[in-house]
Amino acid sequence: MTVVSPSALSIDFSRLNEQIEAFNQSEAEYLHFDVMDGHLVPNLTFGPDILKGLKKMTSKVMDVHLMVTDPVHYAEVFVNAGADIITFHIEAIKNDAGLALVDDLHQKQIRAGITLKPKTSVETLIPYLEKVDMVLVMSVEPGFGGQSFMADMLEKVRFLKQYREEHQLSYLIEIDGGINEETGKLAKEAGCDILVAGSYVFNHPQGIKEAVRTLL
Ligand code: DX5
Ligand code: ZN
Q1: Quick check: 2 and 27 in contact, CB under 8 A?
Q2: Which of 140, 141, 180, 199 gets mutated to test ligand 1 (max ligand atoms within 8 A of its CB)?
Q3: Residue 84: which of 39, 123, 54 has the closest Cα?
Q4: Rounded Cα–Cα distance for residues 85 and 51 (Å)
Q5: From the CA of 96, how far away is ligand 1's center (Å)?
Q6: Are 201 and 211 in contact (CB under 8 A)?
Q7: pLDDT digits (tens, 9 = 90+) for 106-121
Q8: Which of 41, 137, 152, 213 has the smallest set of CB atoms within 10 Å of its CB?
Q9: Is 142 in the pocket of ligand 1 (CB under 6 A)?
C-alpha cells in the first residue's frame, strides 16, 4: 500500500482552511512539512509554531523533513511542536551525531528518517539502514517545490529496496521532488512506499482529493 504525503510547501496560504479541509478529506495519510534554514538549502520556510497550528487543523501523520545544518537541535524543537516522523540530511551530520540522534528520537517514540541530496551517494547511508524507520530519496535538489523529477534517482530506490531485502530490514522508502501521476508510478515500480508531492497535489485542476487518488 502506497502512502501519500502532500507537501505543505505548496499550500496556497491565502486559502489555507479550504486546502486543509480538502486534504483532510483525501486518502493522504501524512502531511510532509519542509523545514529549511537558508543554510543547508537556499530557502527559508516554516518554524515550529506553524507545525503547531497545522496540527490543530489535521490529524494526519506529521512527516517533518529537516533541511537544516543543525538537525540535532531542530529535531528536538520539532518533536516538541508535534512531529511524528523526523527526517534529517546526512550532509548535515558530523561524526556519529546522526546515529545518536536516531536513538534519541526512538527513545521519544518518534520515527526517524535519513535523507540525502541528489549528488550524495546512497552508500553513505549504509550505517543508518539498520536503525532508521524511513529513508527519503530526494529526486530534486532540495530547496524549492515545482522542479522536474530526476529519474536517475530511482537507482537509489532500487538499491535501498534490494538492501532491505538482503538484510531483512524494515525501513520505508520515501521519495520527494517532482512527483506527479506519471513519475509517482515509476517511483512505486522502483520500490517506493511513500510519495511526497507538493505542487502536483495542491495545484491539481481536479482538486486535492483527486490528485491524491491518482498517486495511490
Ligand atoms: C523540496 C522539498 C519538497 C517539495 C516537493 O526541497 O523537500 O518536499 O515540497 O515539491 P514538488 O512535489 O512540487 O516537487
Ligand atoms: Zn521535503
Answers
A1: no
A2: 140
A3: 54
A4: 13
A5: 28
A6: yes
A7: 999 999 999 999 999 9
A8: 152
A9: yes
